[in-house]
Amino acid sequence: MTSSPSETETTVHPLQEFADAVAGGVGGEAEIAFDTVKVRVAPEQWVSALTTARDELGLVFFSFLSAVDWSAEVEVGDPPGDEVEERYELLAALGDISAGHRVIFTTDLAKDSPVIPSVVDVFPGANWHEREAHEMFGIEFTGHPNLANLYLPDSFIGNPLRKSYPLLSREVKPWPGSVDVEVMPGGDEETGEGPSEENPEA
Amino acid sequence: MVLDQDLVRHLSESSVSVELETEDMTLNIGPQHPSTHGVLRLVARIDGERAFDVQPVIGYMHRGYEKLSEVRTYPQITTLVNRIDWVSGYANEVPFIVAAEKLLEIEVPERAQYIRLILTEMARISSHLIFMASYPLELGAPTPLFFALRERERVLDLLEGVTGGRFHPNFNRIGGVKPAYGSGSSTRKVIQDLPAGFLAETRDAMDKVTVAVDEINSLVAGNEIILARTKGVGVLPREVAASYGVSGPNLRASGVGFDLRKVEDYLPYHLFDFEVPVGENGDCWDRWHVRLLEIRQSVRIIQQAIDGIPSGPLQAKVPKVIKVPKGETYVRAENPKGEMGYYLVSNGGQGPYRLKIRSASFSNISILPWILEGVLIPDIIAIMGSLDFVLGDVDR
Amino acid sequence: MTSFLTDLFSNFWVSLAGKLLIVALMIPLVGMVIGFAEMKLSAKMQARVGPYFAGGRWGWAQLIADGVKFFQKEDLIPAEADRPVFKLAPVLVLVSTVALLVVIPFGPDLIFRDLSVGVFYALAISSVSTIGILMAGWSSANKYSLMGGLRAAGQLIAYELPLVLAVVGAVILAGTMSMAGIVEAQISAGYPFVIFQFVGFAVFLIAALAELTRIPFDMPIAESELVMGYLTEYSGFRFLFFFLAEFANMFTLSAIAVTLFLGGWWLPGIPDNVLAYAGPVILVAKVFVLVFIMIWFRWTFPRFREDQLQSLAWKVLVPLALANIAITAVFKVVLG
Lengths: 202, 396, 336
Description:
The structure holds 3 protein chains of 3 kinds. Chain B is an alpha+beta fold. Helix content of chain B is 47%, strand content 12%. In chain B, the strands form 3 sheets. A 4-stranded antiparallel β-sheet of chain B has the order 1-2-3-9. In chain B, helix 3 packs antiparallel against helix 4, helix 4 runs antiparallel to helix 5 (110-139) and helix 5 (110-139) packs antiparallel against helix 6. Chain B starts with a helix and ends with a helix. By secondary structure, chain C is mainly alpha-helical. Chain C has helices at 2-10, 12-45, 62-71, 83-100, 118-126, 128-139, 143-174, 179-189, 198-211, 223-226, 237-261, 272-300, 306-335. Chains A and B meet through strand 3 and helix 3 of A and helix 2, helix 9, helix 11, strand 6 and strand 7 of B.
């Protein structure tokens, strides 16, 4: 059940053919990792790629649309580590409703001006997903009928899911770490860990 | 008294012309309302009894899970994640843990997979029983509520017996399921497995659930009033459903025989024999009927799983401190409400870099403005109830 | 002593006062008994126990406790509400119920007032509650209440017609509109009218359920949609009036149905001197059978949508009742 691109050339991933078909159809590049097919397209091709996927490749099911904020410096969590290209990576997951194929279309948006056309005309379900991406990341979707806040109050300032947006509760009170941990039954007296992190006997 | 002839002539000759101007009314359904499954607000513009513009306002329960998961480790996120769709608690944890295990490239032992499958199907039965309870209540029939909740208590008691929690099990660990503790031993090497008698009691409970579901079916299915309230109401065509991302029983009721359990490999469903119920018209009645049939199929799966469960360890060998290597994956599962998926971006840390949670009810209710166009107010309640959403799932 | 009492009660005013007292006591008592029956029966149907603590194991004091609770609550009137109308509405609904009791024959000579147009009076008075409900819905200054009140108006007016038409068959068979006279007609005929008037009886029962706005006809209240419909803003003793009126109305409409179709206080085979005392008991027993059926329907069926409700009234019940009248009239003329 596991596969990775680092396997030998003799074994072709079962999804390779499908991935190549999709990439060829929309004019992008395909990569398969951990059973997930990702097809990267340029921002100018975004709407046409999704339209082609829906009309010709049978990917009629709209799963989700979201983004990933790749930044070198982060306010929350751990930084990415290696040299990472700073961008917003927009993701749109489509699927079909017969064989269960699914593809994640992705495109890269510049950090200083994240603007992209809306796909509401292609998939009406993208309406709410784009509103959420807009309020959480600050991405502009041109042509969207109503780009108002979805979750956040109207008066909210800021884009919470950006890596530059701090977790306010942590600012107020830093994370205390493990305090007063009661020793689990059968656990280590010193570290307070329980046997769940050990390997149990059969 | 003599009537003034002039007055009479005047009255009989003058014609009355009144233009009936009706104003439409804006009605707020919710956020506190008996039928909105939580804090959902519908701003409905209605003309008499007909609504012609319904806009949902959501976000009253937004808890910021995606941001929180960037500062949590994987076992900690499990506690967050089963609060998304709290009605089917266990089913939310499984795709997340499978995503982490995919990036770690570990094999989960077979016994653990079977246990995960049994508990997921029990979560599905639990969620559908809540639907069986609350939907007739919204139509006005209060009695199936008690029958369905009584059966759900059996399932929840079993869940509590094995996981320790009725709604929020926290039962998964990376590499398998959390083993139970043996009794009275102070060493670490304790025989750890399911509680004694769990499988036999589950088998017994499944028989009782089947009987109860038949009872509820007989109370509801032949009832002319329920048929009149649900047949032909809220028809959802399959193309519209797919383009909005509606999934799960709602999509299957519209005639699409697509079940993620048959095409995805997050749990070993391919080892079991079960059918996928499909509806015909996509109306409220079909959405009810598909869920009822799904309970029966879940019972079938559980019985097969109990019969065939292998022995073995409950957890694979994992290091003490788990760091998931770099990679991205999308794992999706057939949750009771629909397709639930986790897009996990990991950077080699103890927690994710980005976790996108694709929740089923979010897409399921994005269809409300489309489907509630020009619909009578009682039908608004009937349609909303038949979509079976939970606000925690919508707002995350 | 007895001659003193007879002389006393032959005085018009004293007997009037006595009758008023009995009616005033009957309404809360009947309301409480039927309310308690509803709680226990619904519990049985739903695998529950019902009232358990108030008054020992059987919980018989539950409704007394509820009544006291409602009475001692704060009298809340919304700021925007139309105060005189708001206060008058529950009174109107309760008064129409109380006035219905006047013409119900409880025994051979036990009737508060035997009007020669008893049936006509009963049906006319029961429709006064419609106005009360409309007043409640309108005066509450609440959109949900307004919608509930308007739904109620539509529903109650629509179902007046089947209610009235259904009893015409029994009136034709009896030849009189006096309630006591109809019972006498059934005694002399030897059978209760339901045997030939089963269509009329069924239509009357359905229309009575709609008049009571009970499930399956409780669109005006529709708890899962309109919170409580026209009752939303009522609390405390004003709500108690509505609450009691509903249960007492169940009793009175069932009593009318029993009188017109099921033989009233009469059972064949019981001698007359016993009937003088057993009459009320027999009537109450028959009424409780009908009340049980009403409770049973409430907990089994969901509610109709407004347009389905209207089409049931106009397209099904009214033609059925009219056909019933025509056939009954023909048979009466032909067979005499």
